[in-house]
Protein backbone atom coordinates (compact mmCIF):
# COMPACT_ATOMS: atom_id res chain seq x y z
CA UNK A 1 0.00 0.00 0.00
CA UNK A 2 1.45 3.29 -1.02
CA UNK A 3 1.95 5.99 1.54
CA UNK A 4 -0.47 8.85 1.62
CA UNK A 5 1.03 11.77 -0.25
CA UNK A 6 2.01 14.64 1.97
CA UNK A 7 -0.42 17.51 2.28
CA UNK A 8 0.52 20.26 -0.09
CA UNK A 9 2.42 22.99 1.67
CA UNK A 10 1.00 26.48 1.30
CA UNK A 11 3.04 28.79 -0.82
CA UNK A 12 5.08 31.31 1.15
CA UNK A 13 2.83 34.11 2.37
CA UNK A 14 -0.35 32.12 1.81
CA UNK A 15 -2.75 31.20 4.61
CA UNK A 16 -2.67 27.46 5.38
CA UNK A 17 -5.89 25.56 4.69
CA UNK A 18 -8.41 25.25 7.56
CA UNK A 19 -8.08 22.31 9.91
CA UNK A 20 -11.19 20.22 9.26
CA UNK A 21 -10.50 18.03 12.27
CA UNK A 22 -11.78 20.89 14.40
CA UNK A 23 -15.29 20.30 13.12
CA UNK A 24 -17.01 17.79 15.37
CA UNK A 25 -20.33 16.00 15.35
CA UNK A 26 -23.44 17.71 14.09
CA UNK A 27 -25.54 19.16 16.90
CA UNK A 28 -28.32 20.66 14.77
CA UNK A 29 -28.94 19.63 11.20
CA UNK A 30 -29.87 22.30 8.69
CA UNK A 31 -33.39 20.86 8.43
CA UNK A 32 -33.92 21.18 12.19
CA UNK A 33 -32.67 24.74 12.14
CA UNK A 34 -34.90 25.65 9.21
CA UNK A 35 -37.97 24.16 10.89
CA UNK A 36 -37.37 26.05 14.13
CA UNK A 37 -36.63 29.28 12.29
CA UNK A 38 -39.94 28.93 10.48
CA UNK A 39 -41.73 28.50 13.82
CA UNK A 40 -40.07 31.60 15.19
CA UNK A 41 -40.98 33.50 12.04
CA UNK A 42 -44.62 32.50 12.41
CA UNK A 43 -44.65 33.66 16.04
CA UNK A 44 -43.09 36.97 15.13
CA UNK A 45 -45.51 37.42 12.24
CA UNK A 46 -48.44 36.96 14.60
CA UNK A 47 -46.99 39.31 17.23
CA UNK A 48 -46.00 42.14 14.92
CA UNK A 49 -49.12 42.79 12.88
CA UNK A 50 -49.53 46.54 12.24
CA UNK A 51 -46.05 47.25 13.55
CA UNK A 52 -43.08 49.22 12.32
CA UNK A 53 -40.63 46.35 12.60
CA UNK A 54 -36.88 46.79 12.41
CA UNK A 55 -34.71 43.69 12.73
CA UNK A 56 -31.26 44.43 14.11
CA UNK A 57 -28.51 41.87 13.75
CA UNK A 58 -25.21 41.87 15.56
CA UNK A 59 -22.39 41.14 13.13
CA UNK A 60 -21.19 38.67 12.25
CA UNK A 61 -22.55 35.55 13.91
CA UNK A 62 -26.24 36.29 13.53
CA UNK A 63 -26.19 37.17 9.84
CA UNK A 64 -27.24 33.74 8.55
CA UNK A 65 -29.97 33.43 11.17
CA UNK A 66 -31.26 36.92 10.45
CA UNK A 67 -31.35 36.30 6.70
CA UNK A 68 -33.32 33.07 7.11
CA UNK A 69 -35.58 34.44 9.84
CA UNK A 70 -36.47 37.57 7.90
CA UNK A 71 -37.69 35.45 4.99
CA UNK A 72 -40.13 33.60 7.25
CA UNK A 73 -41.67 36.76 8.70
CA UNK A 74 -44.75 37.82 6.76
CA UNK A 75 -45.02 41.46 7.77
CA UNK A 76 -43.16 44.41 6.25
CA UNK A 77 -39.83 44.93 7.96
CA UNK A 78 -36.51 46.64 7.66
CA UNK A 79 -33.11 45.21 8.55
CA UNK A 80 -30.05 46.85 9.96
CA UNK A 81 -26.72 45.73 11.35
CA UNK A 82 -24.42 46.68 14.18
CA UNK A 83 -21.02 45.47 15.23
CA UNK A 84 -19.59 45.33 18.72
CA UNK A 85 -15.95 45.60 19.71
CA UNK A 86 -14.31 42.40 20.83
CA UNK A 87 -12.69 41.90 24.20
CA UNK A 88 -9.59 40.37 22.62
CA UNK A 89 -8.92 43.46 20.55
CA UNK A 90 -9.50 45.96 23.29
CA UNK A 91 -8.54 44.75 26.67
CA UNK A 92 -4.82 45.51 26.28
CA UNK A 93 -5.46 49.10 25.27
CA UNK A 94 -6.57 51.18 28.27
CA UNK A 95 -7.64 54.08 26.07
CA UNK A 96 -10.11 51.87 24.22
CA UNK A 97 -11.11 49.53 26.97
CA UNK A 98 -14.79 48.75 27.16
CA UNK A 99 -17.42 47.33 24.90
CA UNK A 100 -18.68 49.73 22.25
CA UNK A 101 -20.33 49.85 18.86
CA UNK A 102 -17.72 49.73 16.11
CA UNK A 103 -20.47 49.88 13.51
CA UNK A 104 -23.60 51.75 14.43
CA UNK A 105 -27.06 51.42 12.97
CA UNK A 106 -28.02 53.30 9.84
CA UNK A 107 -31.78 53.24 10.42
CA UNK A 108 -33.58 55.27 13.10
CA UNK A 109 -34.80 53.47 16.21
CA UNK A 110 -37.03 56.05 17.89
CA UNK A 111 -40.70 55.09 17.96
CA UNK A 112 -40.15 51.81 16.16
CA UNK A 113 -40.60 48.15 17.06
CA UNK A 114 -37.11 46.77 17.43
CA UNK A 115 -36.29 43.09 17.36
CA UNK A 116 -32.65 42.32 18.15
CA UNK A 117 -31.61 39.12 16.40
CA UNK A 118 -28.78 37.31 18.19
CA UNK A 119 -26.87 34.16 17.37
CA UNK A 120 -26.52 33.15 21.03
CA UNK A 121 -27.32 34.56 24.45
CA UNK A 122 -24.96 33.29 27.10
CA UNK A 123 -24.02 35.45 30.11
CA UNK A 124 -26.27 38.15 28.68
CA UNK A 125 -23.61 40.82 29.27
CA UNK A 126 -23.26 41.80 25.61
CA UNK A 127 -27.02 41.83 25.13
CA UNK A 128 -27.45 43.86 28.30
CA UNK A 129 -25.16 46.53 26.84
CA UNK A 130 -26.98 46.50 23.49
CA UNK A 131 -30.44 46.76 25.04
CA UNK A 132 -29.36 49.49 27.42
CA UNK A 133 -27.96 51.50 24.51
CA UNK A 134 -30.98 50.97 22.26
CA UNK A 135 -33.39 51.85 25.06
CA UNK A 136 -31.81 55.31 25.23
CA UNK A 137 -32.84 55.83 21.60
CA UNK A 138 -36.54 55.59 22.44
CA UNK A 139 -37.95 52.60 20.56
CA UNK A 140 -41.67 51.85 20.85
CA UNK A 141 -40.86 48.25 21.73
CA UNK A 142 -37.63 46.31 22.15
CA UNK A 143 -37.47 42.52 22.09
CA UNK A 144 -34.87 39.82 21.51
CA UNK A 145 -34.84 36.76 19.27
CA UNK A 146 -31.93 34.37 19.62
CA UNK A 147 -31.10 31.21 17.74
CA UNK A 148 -29.25 29.59 20.64
CA UNK A 149 -29.69 30.16 24.34
CA UNK A 150 -27.80 29.16 27.47
CA UNK A 151 -30.12 30.49 30.17
CA UNK A 152 -28.24 28.55 32.85
CA UNK A 153 -25.16 30.73 32.27
CA UNK A 154 -26.93 34.04 32.59
CA UNK A 155 -25.35 36.80 34.65
CA UNK A 156 -27.32 39.76 33.31
CA UNK A 157 -31.02 39.02 33.60
CA UNK A 158 -32.08 39.94 30.08
CA UNK A 159 -35.52 39.15 28.71
CA UNK A 160 -35.36 36.86 25.65
CA UNK A 161 -38.79 36.72 24.02
CA UNK A 162 -38.00 34.31 21.19
CA UNK A 163 -35.51 31.48 21.67
CA UNK A 164 -34.67 28.84 19.09
CA UNK A 165 -32.73 26.17 20.94
CA UNK A 166 -31.33 25.75 24.43
CA UNK A 167 -27.87 24.33 23.91
CA UNK A 168 -25.23 22.69 26.11
CA UNK A 169 -22.16 24.52 27.30
CA UNK A 170 -20.02 23.66 24.28
CA UNK A 171 -18.44 25.63 21.47
CA UNK A 172 -20.05 25.45 18.06
CA UNK A 173 -19.20 26.20 14.48
CA UNK A 174 -21.43 26.60 11.45
CA UNK A 175 -24.59 28.53 10.63
CA UNK A 176 -22.81 31.75 11.48
CA UNK A 177 -20.67 30.48 14.35
CA UNK A 178 -16.96 30.69 13.71
CA UNK A 179 -13.65 29.53 15.01
CA UNK A 180 -11.08 32.20 14.19
CA UNK A 181 -13.43 33.51 11.49
CA UNK A 182 -13.69 30.13 9.75
CA UNK A 183 -16.55 27.63 9.34
CA UNK A 184 -19.42 30.13 9.52
CA UNK A 185 -20.66 28.86 6.16
CA UNK A 186 -21.40 25.30 7.29
CA UNK A 187 -25.15 24.76 6.75
CA UNK A 188 -25.52 22.95 10.08
CA UNK A 189 -24.35 23.56 13.64
CA UNK A 190 -21.47 21.34 14.71
CA UNK A 191 -19.46 20.95 17.89
CA UNK A 192 -16.02 22.50 17.80
CA UNK A 193 -13.23 20.10 18.72
CA UNK A 194 -10.81 22.10 20.82
CA UNK B 1 -2.45 39.75 45.91
CA UNK B 2 -1.31 43.15 44.69
CA UNK B 3 -3.94 45.52 43.49
CA UNK B 4 -1.51 47.09 41.01
CA UNK B 5 -2.82 47.04 37.50
CA UNK B 6 -5.60 48.62 35.57
CA UNK B 7 -7.84 51.18 37.09
CA UNK B 8 -11.45 50.25 36.85
CA UNK B 9 -13.90 52.65 35.28
CA UNK B 10 -17.00 50.90 36.57
CA UNK B 11 -15.87 50.14 40.09
CA UNK B 12 -18.19 51.72 42.61
CA UNK B 13 -16.35 51.99 45.86
CA UNK B 14 -14.32 54.39 47.94
CA UNK B 15 -11.04 52.48 48.24
CA UNK B 16 -9.21 50.55 45.50
CA UNK B 17 -10.32 46.90 45.50
CA UNK B 18 -7.80 44.47 46.96
CA UNK B 19 -8.45 41.23 45.14
CA UNK B 20 -7.59 38.02 46.89
CA UNK B 21 -7.24 35.92 43.73
CA UNK B 22 -6.37 36.43 40.09
CA UNK B 23 -9.78 35.04 39.20
CA UNK B 24 -11.47 37.88 41.05
CA UNK B 25 -9.37 40.39 39.15
CA UNK B 26 -10.23 38.80 35.83
CA UNK B 27 -13.89 38.86 36.74
CA UNK B 28 -13.58 42.56 37.55
CA UNK B 29 -11.92 43.20 34.18
CA UNK B 30 -14.73 41.43 32.35
CA UNK B 31 -17.40 43.38 34.23
CA UNK B 32 -15.57 46.61 33.49
CA UNK B 33 -15.29 45.72 29.83
CA UNK B 34 -19.06 45.28 29.66
CA UNK B 35 -19.57 48.60 31.44
CA UNK B 36 -21.42 46.91 34.25
CA UNK B 37 -20.97 48.88 37.50
CA UNK B 38 -19.64 46.68 40.30
CA UNK B 39 -18.73 46.81 43.93
CA UNK B 40 -16.18 44.57 45.60
CA UNK B 41 -17.23 42.71 48.74
CA UNK B 42 -19.62 45.47 49.82
CA UNK B 43 -21.71 43.41 52.23
CA UNK B 44 -21.35 40.53 54.61
CA UNK B 45 -24.40 38.38 55.17
CA UNK B 46 -24.82 36.74 58.55
CA UNK B 47 -25.83 33.15 58.04
CA UNK B 48 -25.89 31.80 61.58
CA UNK B 49 -25.71 33.15 65.15
CA UNK B 50 -25.61 31.47 68.54
CA UNK B 51 -28.05 32.08 71.39
CA UNK B 52 -26.05 35.15 72.48
CA UNK B 53 -26.13 36.71 69.07
CA UNK B 54 -22.53 35.90 68.24
CA UNK B 55 -21.92 35.33 64.57
CA UNK B 56 -21.18 31.70 63.84
CA UNK B 57 -21.17 31.89 60.09
CA UNK B 58 -21.11 34.68 57.56
CA UNK B 59 -20.65 35.05 53.84
CA UNK B 60 -19.22 37.94 51.81
CA UNK B 61 -19.84 37.53 48.08
CA UNK B 62 -17.04 38.89 45.90
CA UNK B 63 -19.05 41.32 43.81
CA UNK B 64 -22.30 43.23 43.82
CA UNK B 65 -23.66 44.54 40.53
CA UNK B 66 -26.03 47.36 41.49
CA UNK B 67 -27.56 47.77 38.02
CA UNK B 68 -28.45 44.08 37.95
CA UNK B 69 -29.12 43.83 41.69
CA UNK B 70 -26.99 40.70 41.71
CA UNK B 71 -24.24 39.35 43.96
CA UNK B 72 -21.54 37.19 42.38
CA UNK B 73 -19.13 34.81 44.04
CA UNK B 74 -16.30 33.50 41.86
CA UNK B 75 -14.23 30.42 42.49
CA UNK B 76 -11.36 28.74 40.72
CA UNK B 77 -12.23 25.42 42.28
CA UNK B 78 -13.93 22.59 40.44
CA UNK B 79 -17.68 22.41 40.83
CA UNK B 80 -17.37 19.13 42.72
CA UNK B 81 -15.03 20.71 45.28
CA UNK B 82 -17.05 23.73 46.21
CA UNK B 83 -19.46 22.07 48.59
CA UNK B 84 -18.83 24.64 51.29
CA UNK B 85 -19.43 27.57 48.98
CA UNK B 86 -22.51 25.95 47.54
CA UNK B 87 -23.84 25.47 51.03
CA UNK B 88 -23.18 29.12 51.91
CA UNK B 89 -24.95 30.32 48.79
CA UNK B 90 -27.88 28.04 49.57
CA UNK B 91 -28.00 29.32 53.15
CA UNK B 92 -27.86 32.89 51.94
CA UNK B 93 -30.81 32.27 49.64
CA UNK B 94 -32.75 30.68 52.48
CA UNK B 95 -32.11 33.47 54.97
CA UNK B 96 -32.28 36.34 52.49
CA UNK B 97 -34.74 35.23 49.79
CA UNK B 98 -34.86 38.75 48.38
CA UNK B 99 -31.13 38.61 47.55
CA UNK B 100 -30.04 37.40 44.13
CA UNK B 101 -26.70 35.62 44.17
CA UNK B 102 -24.84 33.58 41.57
CA UNK B 103 -21.80 31.37 42.00
CA UNK B 104 -19.40 31.26 39.05
CA UNK B 105 -17.47 28.00 38.99
CA UNK B 106 -14.15 27.10 37.47
CA UNK B 107 -15.99 25.73 34.46
CA UNK B 108 -17.72 29.08 33.93
CA UNK B 109 -14.35 30.77 33.99
CA UNK B 110 -12.81 28.31 31.59
CA UNK B 111 -15.61 29.13 29.18
CA UNK B 112 -15.12 32.84 29.70
CA UNK B 113 -11.36 32.42 29.34
CA UNK B 114 -11.79 30.63 26.02
CA UNK B 115 -14.21 33.27 24.85
CA UNK B 116 -11.99 36.17 25.83
CA UNK B 117 -8.54 34.59 25.35
CA UNK B 118 -7.78 35.06 29.02
CA UNK B 119 -4.95 33.21 30.66
CA UNK B 120 -6.34 31.39 33.64
CA UNK B 121 -4.38 31.47 36.87
CA UNK B 122 -2.96 28.10 37.75
Globular, elongated, flat, extended or rod-shaped: what is the shape of chain B? globular
Percent of residues in β-strands of chain B? 15-25%
Q: N-to-C SSE series of chain B?
A: HEEEEEHEH
Which value, in Å, is the CA radius of gyration of chain A?
19 Å
The low-confidence runs of chain A, each spanning 5 or more residues with pLDDT under 50, are: 1-5
Q: Total strand count of chain B, please?
A: 6
Number of helices of chain A: 4
- Rg of chain B, alpha carbons: 15 Å
Q: Cα distance, first to last residue of chain A? A: 32 Å
Q: By helix and strand content of chain A, what is the structural category? A: alpha/beta
Largest interface: A-B, 20 and 24 residues
Which structural category fits the helices and strands of chain B?
alpha+beta
Overall geometric form of chain A? globular
Low-confidence stretches of chain B are none
Question: How many beta-strand segments of chain A?
Answer: 9
Strand residue content of chain A: 25-35%
- Major β-sheet annotation of chain A: 6 strands, mixed
Helical fraction of chain A: 10-25%
**Percentage of helical residues of chain B?**
25-40%
Amino acid sequence: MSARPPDPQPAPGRTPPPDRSLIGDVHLHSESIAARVAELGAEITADYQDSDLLLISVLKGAVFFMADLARTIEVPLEMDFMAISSYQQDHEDPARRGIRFIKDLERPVEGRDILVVEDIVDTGLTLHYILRTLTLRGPRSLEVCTLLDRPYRRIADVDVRYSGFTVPDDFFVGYGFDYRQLYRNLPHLAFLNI
Amino acid sequence: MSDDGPTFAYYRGDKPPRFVTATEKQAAEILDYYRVPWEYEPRTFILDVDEHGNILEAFTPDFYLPDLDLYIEVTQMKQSLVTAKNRKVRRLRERYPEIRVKLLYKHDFIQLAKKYDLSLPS
